[in-house]
Amino acid sequence: MPAQVSIDVRGLTKRYGRLLAVDHISFQVYRGEVFSLLGPNGAGKTTTVSMLSTLRMPTEGDALVEGYSIVRDRTAVRRIIGVVPQDLTADDELTGFDNVLLMARLHGYRGKEAEERAKEAIRFMELEDAANRRVMYYSGGMRRRLEIAMSVVHDPQVVFLDEPTVGLDVQSRRHIWDLIRRLKKVGVTVVLTTHYMEEADELSDRVAIMDHGHIVALGSPDELKSRIKGDRIYLKLGSPDEVRRALEAISVEFKDVSEVDGQLVVKVPSSADAMPQLIKLLSSFDVRELRVVRPNLEEVFLELTGHGLRDEESFDTFKFRRLMGAMRS
Ligand SMILES: Nc1ncnc2c1ncn2[C@@H]1O[C@H](COP(=O)(O)OP(=O)(O)O)[C@@H](O)[C@H]1O
Ligand SMILES: [Mg+2]
C-alpha cells in the first residue's frame, strides 16, 4: 500500500535579504512517520520548520499540511499541528501544569475539559511528579518534556520538534526519544530537526540531509548509509606539517586519502585488512589518534558535502586553516 502523504512541500523558499536560507526544497512526509531534517547549524532547518508550522511566511513556494496550504490556510494548519520551537516558550514562573493548561485554553478548551486535556498531556510526557512545581526548578530534560506536553494538548495530527534534545545529557535524550516514539505509536506524524546523527539514525523512518538551504539526500537511515562503502580510518597527527607528509606517505599505498577538518581520512574496503600496512607506513609519524569509523550518517553527510555536521569541526577547520596560513607566511 502506498504511504499516505501528510506534508507535501513544493519549492519552499526563504530569503533573508540577500541570503537564500531555504532554496526551493521539495519533499513529502508520510502520515505517521518520524521524519528528520538533519544538518549542521545554519543549514536552514529552523527556517523550514518555521515555515511549515506557519511561524514564518515563505518567500516562494508552498506546502500542504494534511491538505491545508501553509500560505493560504494558515489558521487551519495551526489547528492540526503542534510545535516545539528551538527557543523554549514555557513560563518559568508558572507550574508545569499551568503552562499546559494555558495552552489548552489557547486552543479553545474550557473548564473541566481544559483541565482533563492538560492532565492527559502531562501524563503522556511522564511529568506527573513535577506537574505542580514551578518551571524554574525543572531540569533541561523536564523542560523539553513540558514543551512537548504543551504542543500535544489539542491532539495534533502533526508535531514539529526543532532540535528536541539539544544540550541534554544522554539519559534525558534517550527519554525524549522514547516519548517521540510514543507519539508515533499513537499515530502522530513527527517532523524533527537535529544536528545529531545518532538521533536521526535511531529515531527516524526517513531522513532529509540538509546543507546550505538544500536537501542533499533523502531516504531511510539504512538507505543513506548503504551509499557509503567500506570503512574510514581517521588519523590525528602532531602538526599540520605531519599531516601533509603523512598524506604523501600513505598515498603511495592507499588510493583514497584526503584531509578533512585537519585530520587524515583513509577510505578502505576493510579496516582490518588495511591496518597492518597502514601502521607500517605511519611508523615514523607522530600519530595522536587513530579512529576506525563504520558507515554512519555523519559519513554520508561528509561524503555529500565535504564538511562535518558538528560545530566543533567547522571551528577546527577554521583554526587549522589559520594555523596553516601562519606557518606558510
Ligand atoms: N531572522 C533571520 N534573519 C536573517 N537571517 C536569518 C534569520 N534566521 C535565520 N537566518 C539565517 O538563515 C540561515 C539558516 O538558519 P536556520 O534556519 O536557523 O538554520 P538551522 O536551524 O539549520 O541552524 C542561517 O545562515 C541563519 O543565519
Ligand atoms: Mg535551528
Secondary-structure map:
Blueprint: E1 5-16, E2 19-30, E3 34-38, H1 45-52, E4 60-65, E5 68-69, H2 74-80, E6 81-84, H3 96-106, H4 111-124, H5 140-152, E7 158-162, H6 170-185, E8 189-194, H7 197-203, E9 206-211, E10 214-219, H8 221-225, E11 231-237, H9 240-251, E12 257-260, E13 263-268, H10 271-281, E14 287-293, H11 297-305, H12 311-328
Parallel strand pairs: 3-8, 3-9, 6-7, 7-8
Antiparallel strand pairs: 1-2, 1-4, 4-5, 9-10, 11-13, 11-14, 12-13
Helix pairs in contact: 3-4, 3-5, 4-5, 5-6
Bound molecules: adenosine-5'-diphosphate and magnesium ion.
Task: Summarize the model shown.
The chain is built from 12 helices and 14 strands. It has 329 residues and is of the alpha/beta class.
- β-strand percent reads 25-35%
Mean pLDDT rating: 92
What Rg is obtained from the alpha carbons, in whole angstroms?
A: 23 Å
**Helix coverage percent:** 25-40%
Structural domain tally: 2
Distance between the termini: 64 Å
Total DSSP helices: 12
Which strand order do you get reading across the main beta sheet?
A: 6-7-8-3-9-10
CATH architecture label of the largest domain: 3-Layer(aba) Sandwich
Please give the largest β-sheet.
Answer: 6 strands, mixed
SSE arrangement, N to C? EEEHEEHEHHHEHEHEEHEHEEHEHH
Bound molecules: adenosine-5'-diphosphate, magnesium ion
> What assembly state would you assign to the polypeptide chains in this entry?
single chain
- General form: elongated
The name of the CATH superfamily of the largest domain reads P-loop containing nucleotide triphosphate hydrolases
In CATH's first tier, which class of the largest domain applies?
A: Alpha Beta
SS-derived structural category? alpha/beta
Which fold name fills CATH's third level, the topology of the largest domain? Rossmann fold
DSSP summary, beta strand count: 14
Uncertain residue segments: 312-320
